[in-house]
Amino acid sequence: MAQSGRRDAPELPDFSLLKRLARDQLIYLLEQLPGRKDLFIDADLMSPLDRIANVTTLKQHEVDKLYKVELKPIVSTADQLCFLIRPRIQTVKWISDVVNLDKAAGRLRRYKIIFTPQKFYACEAVLEEQGVFGDVTCDEWAFYLLPLDDDIISLELPEFFRENFLEGDQRWVGAAGGALRLIHSLYGPFSKVYGIGQCAKMVYESWREQVEDGEQKTQQPEIGNVFLIDRDVDFITPLCSQVVYEGLVDDIFRIKCGSVEFGPEVTSSDKSIKVMLNSQDKVFNEIRNEHFSNVFGFLSQKARNLQTAYDKRRGMDIQQMKAFVSEELKGLKQEHRLLSLHIGASECIMKKKTKQDFQELLKTEHSLLEGFEVRECVSFIEEHINRQISMIDSLRLLCLLSLTENGLLPKDYRSLKAQYLQSYGIEHLLTFSNLKQMGLLVEQQPGETLTVMESKVGKLVNDKTAGKLTDAFSSLAKKSNFRALSKRLVLIPKSGEEYDLRVPRDMAYIFSGAYVPLSCKLIEQVLERDGWTGLEEITRMLNGHEFAVSGGANGTESRIKADSQRIVLVMFLGGCTYSEISALRFLGRERGYKFIVVTTAITNSGRLLEALLDNHP
Amino acid sequence: VVWIYHKSQKADEYLREIKEQGLLAEAVRQCVEAAGHEQEAETQKTLLRVKPLVCTSIKNLAHSLFSLSISVSAASFGKCFLSNFPPELFVIMCRDLRVLNAVRDYTVGIPLTHTQFKQMTVQVLIDRLVYRKLYPLAIEICRYLKTPEYQGVSRVLKHWACCKVQQKEESDEVIARTISLKLGEAAGISYSEIATKAYECGRTELAIKLLEFEPRSGEQVPLLLKMKRSQLALSKAIESGDTDLVYTVVTYLKNEMNRGDFFMTLRNQPVALSLYRQFCKHQEQDTLKDLFNQDDDHQELGNFYVKASYKEKRLEARVAHLQSAVDEYNKAKNEFAAKTTEEEMRLLRFQKKLEEEKGESLVGFSLHDTLRTLLAVGLHKHAEQLYKDFKVPDKRFWWLKLTALAEKEDWEELEKFAKSKKSPIGYLPFVEVCVKHHNKYEAKKYVSRVTPEQKVKAHLAVGDMEGAADAAIERRNEGEISTILSRCSPTTDRALVERLNRAKSTAAKK
């Protein structure tokens, strides 16, 4: 990437503190159950836990054996059992069964449940119902935030998305508020908080409520601004195919908790290799934000440089050689290893993505975004479904069609759904019902063109006397209004102009210059305007719930370091994609900001849609 | 030491003597302490005066304490005998004495010694005053000693309010207003505690009024439940945004109310309803069904049955569930879902029959997968039947058959199929599928049948550059010519490249 933009970007705060805090608390909790014990860990907590405390650390605190929670009868012979779990009813029920089984067998053991990041009343209710409340001790491990990289922090709560936006279950709001409070107490005070979305507002309020319990801030702030955004404000962006390297790797190999497992087709051996993907990896760090078309050029340049560095050996005398081996060789070898892995990965991506199918898929996506040749797109989607090419991709295209066109024509809606069911089975009736509820795949209301819709929404907004505004909205809320939004915010760059992907001129580069991600554009606009003034039209179409609050209103303005004002924490509620992170990094370079992304989980089109499937009991 | 104050000739001598012995600091300290043990205000003053006299550095401090009853005499007398005596001791003592003197007043009548006071702490003293209902004095002392509001003023105010709510002669309205006026700006007031008190005194209405002032809705909930205002408790819990609290109320309601009322209550509270639904999904499937029934939510009921159907292993049970789903979808006026579900039942029966006849595992497959399996094992007749019965779109069927035949490399059958009637998907797919299975020979058979628009693509797919060039030049399509050019290598296809370039320039001229 051309190192354009401002050079005086501030330094990011050090987030390793979060890890240390989490580790210390975990150790403290483990020591609350003295003596040897077996530890059962929820499957999806294993990778995050590994980042905080490895097996050696756990063993040092008298953990004997480690098991994955599998909801099956256990084989442990230990006298003390410790369960480290997410607060889920199923898991707690399973633990109750374990305890009850022991009781029936006359076996005495001590049990401890550590809920993370917090326990829920419903879990305790289950323990009570199953008659084991007195047999177990419960604790909370306030492990809210896992730093995945210098600028990415994850709550590792993928279920947040489905539970909050589909099931209407707001139990994770408190956890998100707690996460914000933790960041605030360590890196705050924030001087300004912006947000959009109903959940964002609730998280903000939850955080405020938690802070009011008497915390006075006197330290120098490290993070000045905060932006909270709901995933349902922008569904289009995560549903588009990713073409930036890090996003592509995630789409194809699935990055898990900041690391990826490259299979034999990448490593060109018979083994799989796990690689951490973060800024520590020098090769990766330089290509992660690049459009894929540049990656190969970069990698081959890098390979040549590496060769030159190796070649220095020739003509060295013994002394020089010794110095070379002890100082440089290790670094070069490491770089060599990483380079060959990334070249392998790129080749694998090339094989999959430069095929004609993928090119046509991209073309369709771009046409949909532009609203151009929509009929052709519909037939493309139809063929895609008919040929059973990919369950998720077909669904993705259907959703994109619905979102960009404000719903499908009634005829298309029925026929495409019917064909999809023929391809993938009737279970997807439930999937469609979920998608409809989310507003992702809906039928156009007959007789309601876009303009009618807009004026209707407008009337509702202007009619301030209508007390139950939100209720009235909910029927209209599911409209995406994408066309109008894209016009107002100029999300689609003029077609026909050459777009040099090597020297990007705006955030659209992450989608080959076809589309500026709505979520990131909103963030840019709000930071530029220092609030929502002038964006009333936009927020109205996004179903409102926007806010901007000044935090440090106690006359300390002058004391606040100017640097912290340019550090912006963006919290995505419901997940964000690597492409969005790349776009924000680009925006940061252009405007002299540094963005820190906090997300409930890293997502992509696959994960997002899989969360909404209902095809298994 | 006290003599110092008496301005006598001797004082100076004494002073010098003490100073020489290095005991001046000790002397001052003793004086300050002595003042503490003195009951008489006058003597206290005398003793304390020693300090400013010897220590001008704290002269200003002493002045600021002028407002205290312990007035300080002219500091002009003072000479700097001792400059580094820590002022805190003196200041604290002055403050303590002021408080002590206040409570020793005959109207209050708590004759505490300084030692007793130190022993029992300010907190306890305040408590004692509160028990004697000496609220104003307690508040004054708190403010004077700068006790943090939470422990000081607010606590006293809370006690006052708790006492106030017991005054039976005043109306609920008046009491609530007085309390809110007085407590309005104080930090850390728990209205819910006051309300609890009111409730304990049997004033439920007042309690509810007071709860209105509680800013944290979460705090209101337990009391509301206790007062059996469960509906209100539920809305307050939801307002608090704390799902645990909502859940507490929901479980409480579940045990308190009969099922019908309980469901009705939930119905008006979407947040609580979805929370309870989540719980039921894991714990009580049947309750979930009842919930939907209560709401006449036929759509959800239909979904519920569909979900239940694929937990069943037996075909009859599965079909029965689906039938219930159809009924519900019909009630929900969701024709689409009803129709598809009916088709699914038909498909299941068909699969079962075939499974028994042919021994192919089919039950549970989608229509598409069923067709593919049938074609793959060569049950073409059955596939045809399915295709007709279920009105499978032609395009899908052609694609399916094409891929199935190519996979089996049954080229003869494929050719027959291609000729059976006009292909609804065109013939380019035939070319491409053959190429995919590495059979260029077969692929070439179909090139001629491809539409003119796709001809170039077809020729290129089979690697026929000349053919592609002919087609493109015939169509005078610049874009296509360029595509072919990009595939040519300048060394081997020189003649072709020249021809194409010529055609390109004429096409461009047009």
Question: How would you explain this protein's 3D organization?
Answer:
The complex is a heterodimer of chains A (617) and B (510). Chain A has four domains: 15-143, Sec1/Munc18 (SM) protein, domain 1 (Rossmann fold), CATH 3.40.50.2060; 144-240 and 515-616, Rossmann fold (3-Layer(aba) Sandwich), CATH 3.40.50.1910; 245-354, Sec1/Munc18 (SM) protein, domain 3a (Syntaxin Binding Protein 1, Chain A, domain 2); 355-444, Serine Threonine Protein Phosphatase 5, Tetratricopeptide repeat (Alpha Horseshoe), CATH 1.25.40. Chain A contains 26 helices and 14 strands. In chain A, helix 25 links the parallel strand 13 (567-573) and strand 14. Chain A is α/β, with parallel strands linked by helices and 617 residues long. In chain A, the strands form three sheets. A seven-stranded mixed sheet of chain A has the order 6-7-14-13-9-8-12. In chain A, helix 13 packs antiparallel against helix 14 (318-353), helix 17 runs antiparallel to helix 18 (410-424) and helix 20 runs antiparallel to helix 21 (469-477). Chain B is mainly alpha-helical. Chain B is built from 30 helices and no strands. Chain B starts with 8 loop residues before the first helix and ends with a helix.
